[in-house]
C-alpha cells in the first residue's frame, strides 16, 4: 500500500511578512500579527485583494498560558477582516507554524482552496525568564520534566553524548555561534544584529565606562570561553549556545501553482514537505540523532525527488548550537559525526558551499516559538527571490532551499523544501 | 477566481472509537485515547495493521492549562506506537477535533496520505467547577470575558434576544432538554443515561429516604420549572439547559475512497466539509444567529451538492439548549424563528422527520471539549452503518447525516456531511 508521496496539486508562495523580532513590551501578539500581515499584503508583486484569501492557518504555542487567552483563530479572523471564513490553529510547540504551513499546503493541494494564508505569532517577553522556562518546559516530554530536564538540559545531554561519541568539544560549538552572529547584522529583522566581535567591543566599552579591568580576549573563541562573558546554563550549553526569548509574528501567502503567476513572476514552489514525531529522551535509542528530523527529511526528499546535496542552503532549527550540528547530520547534509567538522571548515557560512541559517538563525534572529516555522520559510522565500540584501547567498543560481523546524525537545519536526523554477 | 469547492480525491471513514464519557478520576486523557484507539482498531470490518496509519491529527483544548502539559502530538505518537510518523494537534476550543477531522480529510484529499487517524481527547473532571469555568472562558472572546461573560452568559444573552425576537420562552427550551434526555438511556456511552423522568424519580426517592416533602411535579416541564430541581445558571439558562463537564476521547480512521473497500464493505463517505469563523458577541449584528455556523453550512452544502432537507439526521452542537435551536436555523433545517416550533412539534425526536442529537447530544452524552467534534462524527458514522442499537434512527433508507461542532462562543464552527453510498 506504500507509495511515493506526492501532492495532487502544486502550491507556491507569492507573499510574505515578518516582524522585527525582539522584546516589545508595548505590543501584543495581535499587534505583531497585524504588522506581518500588512507586510505580506504589500509584498505580493502584482497585488492581492485580501478578500480573496479563503482560509487561514496560524501557529501559536504559549498564548493559552502566557496571555490566558485560548482559541486564537477567531481573534485573528476578526483582526484581518476575514470573518466568517475559516481559521485553524495548529500547535506543535516550537514547530507550531511550520504545521500551519503544511496544513495550508494540504488545503490547497486537496483542491478545496486556491488561496490560503499561513502564519504564526508569539509574545513571550512580558513574562519573566522563570515563567518562560516553566511554560516552555510544557513542550518537553513529561518524563523529561519530571526528572528535572528543561530545554538546555536536554540539549546539554545531546552535546555530552555527541562529544563522547565523536570527539567534539565546546570549541566546536563556538563555530556555530560565531557563524550565526556573523549573519545577524545583515538581517534588519534580527533581535541581536551583532557579531561576537560587537559583543566583545560592547563589553569592553562597558568595563571602560565603569572603570573595571578591560578583558583581554585573544579572539571570539576566547570571549566564548570566558565564563563571565558566556556563563554556563546547562553544561556544556552556555549562554551563547542558547536562543533568546522573543516576540514576533510571521506569515506567508500560499496559492495553487497554476494561479501563482497572477500574483508574481517569481513564485517560489513547495517542492517537498515532511513531518515526523520523535521519542522523549528516556526512550531514544540514539542520543545524537532526532528521529523526527530524519523522518521529516525522508518524506520531503521523497516528495521532491531531491537529495540532501541538492539543498543549496537551509534554515536549520538552532534552538541550541548543538541542535544545529545534529540536525545538519539528520537532514543528510553531513554524515553522522561530521556536522561539527563541516562547521569548523566554514562550509555553513554565508559564503560557504552550504550556507546554514542565513537569517542568523534562532540564536541571533530570535525565536518567537509559534512564529518561528513560518519565519524560517520566509527567509528561504526571500533568499530564493534574491531579495535578501546584504545577507543574500552569493550564488547566482540559487534555486533550492530548505527550512527545518523542531518542536519541543524533538517531539515534532518538519522539513520543507522550496524551489524557484 | 471563486469556484465550487471540491476535493481532488474522496475520503471515507472505515473505523471509529469512542470512550464512555463521564468523570474518570483515576484515568487521564492518554488512558482515554488508548481506549478509543483500541476500539477503532477493532472496529475495522476487514482489519487494519496499525503500522499502515500514515499520519495522525488530534484535537485538544485544555491539557495545556488543566494538565500543565503542552505539545501532545509526540505523546500520542508514542502512546500508539506511531513514532516517527507525523502527528499534528489542532485547537479550536470545543471544535478542536472537528478541525483535526478536516485536516485529516485534506491530507488524504491532497494525495499525500492514504490512511490517517483523527481524534480528540480531553480530561476536565480533575479540576474544580470554578477552574473549568475559568479555563473554558479562555475560549470565549477577550471582550466577552472582560465584561463578565462566561459561556452560560453568552448563550443566556442569545436566548433573551431570541425570546424577544420570536416570542419563544423557557418552556420551549424544555422540549430540547426532554428530547435529548429521551435519547440518552439508549446510548451506552452517555454520561447521563437518564430521561428527565428518571431524574424526577431519583429526586423523589431521595426525598423519601431523607424524610423530606415529596415534590408534586405534574410532568417533566413542571420539574424543569422548579428552581430547586433546576436552578438558574445565567438566566434563562438553568442547570438542565447546560452540558456537563466531561472526560473522554474519540477517534476515526479515514482512508482514500478508492481504498475504502479493502477495509469494510460499508465505508461512510465524507460528502461535505465546511468551516467558518465568527465575531465575538460585542461585534455581532445578529444575536440570534452564528455566522460561523452559516458559513460552515454553506461550504459543506456547496461541496456536497446537498441541501438542508437532504440531511436526514444530525448531531448539532448543544452546549446549551438555546444553541441547538439557533443552530437548527443556521444550518438551514428550519427558517429563522421556526427552530423552537419544530422542536415543540417533535420533529427533532428520534422518531421524528429530522432526528437531532440521537447520541443524546452534549447535554446528556457529555462534552469533553477536544473530543467532541470527532465524537459527533462517530455517532453519525455509527448511525449510517446501522449500528446504533436502541437509538438507531428508524429509517431503513438512512443515507445522509450531518455533524455540527461549535468552538467557543461561536468563534469557530464546522459542519460535516457524511454519506452512505
Task: Furnish the topology, listing elements before pairings.
The structure is a homodimer of 421-residue chains.
Chain A: E1 11-18, H1 29-43, E2 55-59, H2 63-67, H3 72-79, E3 87-91, H4 96-109, E4 115-122, H5 129-137, H6 142-146, H7 151-166, H8 170-183, H9 196-210, H10 220-225, E5 232-234, E6 237-238, E7 248-256, E8 268-277, H11 291-304, E9 313-316, H12 321-330, H13 339-344, H14 361-365, H15 369-384, E10 400-407, E11 412-419
Parallel strand pairs in A: 2-3, 2-4, 9-10
Antiparallel strand pairs in A: 1-7, 1-8, 4-7, 5-6, 8-11, 10-11
Task: Describe the 3D structure.
2 copies of one chain form a homodimer. By secondary structure, the first copy, chain A, is an alpha/beta fold. Helix content of chain A is 38%, strand content 17%. Chain A has 15 helices and 11 strands. In chain A, the strands form 2 sheets. Chain A has a 9-stranded mixed sheet with strand order 3-2-4-7-1-8-11-10-9, with helices on both faces. In chain A, strands 5-6 form a two-stranded antiparallel ribbon. In chain A, strand 5 (232-234) and strand 6 form a beta hairpin. Chains A and B meet through helix 3, strand 3, helix 4, strand 8 and helix 11 of A and helix 3, strand 3, helix 4, strand 8 and helix 11 of B.
